[in-house]
Write a structure and sequence with these properties.
247 residues; mainly beta; six-stranded antiparallel beta barrel; 41% strand
């Protein structure tokens, strides 16, 4: 009863979900692990029974130029509409990404991309800047990370969702001293200043600027974090919501 989907569809592990089959049956399920970097997600049907499934291809079964079929629910699920089918080709096969010219629309995410034999070769992820830049999670990433996904582990960040505080520091220093606060960032809005020395991040001790960077990387965009700094002998505490890098 395992279901492949996109990480941004599942959102987080251990969430109760409902799985709707093509014949209208509604089953109970739960989200499991997420590889946010590649946008691979796993869920599991918890309703007892045996369910229809598709054969899974392997990485060697995928070649650039081969025909493929994308199915999904563009615009969102509609009770009386069957999944929409689009035919195209694999334009690019990369280590953690497939690009096809099977046009995707919002709502298709998490649907299957299959080859001419009906084997799943990928899962719909996102849409590029052009109609021919339709991105899918390759099948082999689910196989390679199966144990982590099955155990409900979540790691990485979704494409374009790297968390950002908005400070620069000395990478070689023996403290996490802030040398610059960028304008318009969460750090500036919260009141951080150049010269502040960060000593704690979410109650965890910070020893160097590299350690602060690593702690931020473990968070997600939108997370509210507590940061303690020392400024001229005075200890200050800030609560700040991390933003998306590049915004």
């Amino acid at each position: 009863g395992y279901v492949w989907t996109a990480a941004h569809v599942a959102q987080k592990p251990n969430e109760r979900i409902q799985v709707i089959l093509a014949d209208g049956r509604r089953l109970e399920g739960v989200t499991l692990g997420l590889d946010r970097h590649s946008d691979a997600g796993l869920a599991k049907i918890t309703t007892p029974g045996t369910w229809p499934c598709l054969e899974m291809a392997t990485a060697k079964d995928i070649t650039e130029g081969q025909w493929c079929v994308a199915t999904g629910h563009p615009g969102g699920f509609e009770r009386d509409r069957k999944p929409v089918v689009r035919v195209g080709r694999v334009l690019s096969k990369q280590k953690d990404l497939l690009i096809t010219d099977c046009a995707l629309v919002g709502g298709d995410s998490g649907g299957p991309l299959v080859d001419g034999q009906g084997r799943v070769i990928g899962i719909h992820s996102r849409i590029g800047a052009q109609l021919t830049a339709n991105m899918h999670v390759p099948v082999h990433l689910f196989a390679e990370n199966w144990d982590r996904l099955k155990s409900s582990e979540a790691w990485g960040h979704l494409p374009g969702q790297t968390p950002f505080l908005g400070v620069q520091g000395d990478q070689d220093g023996d403290t996490a001293r802030i040398s610059r606060v960028y304008v318009g960032t969460p750090a500036e809005k919260a009141g951080f200043k150049a010269g502040d020395v960060v000593t704690k991040f979410n109650d965890m001790p910070v020893t160097t600027f590299d350690s602060l960077t690593a702690m931020i990387a473990e968070c997600q965009v939108g997370d509210k974090v507590k940061v303690v700094v020392v400024r001229g002998g005075e200890t200050l505490e800030f609560e700040v919501a991390l933003a998306r890098r590049g915004r």
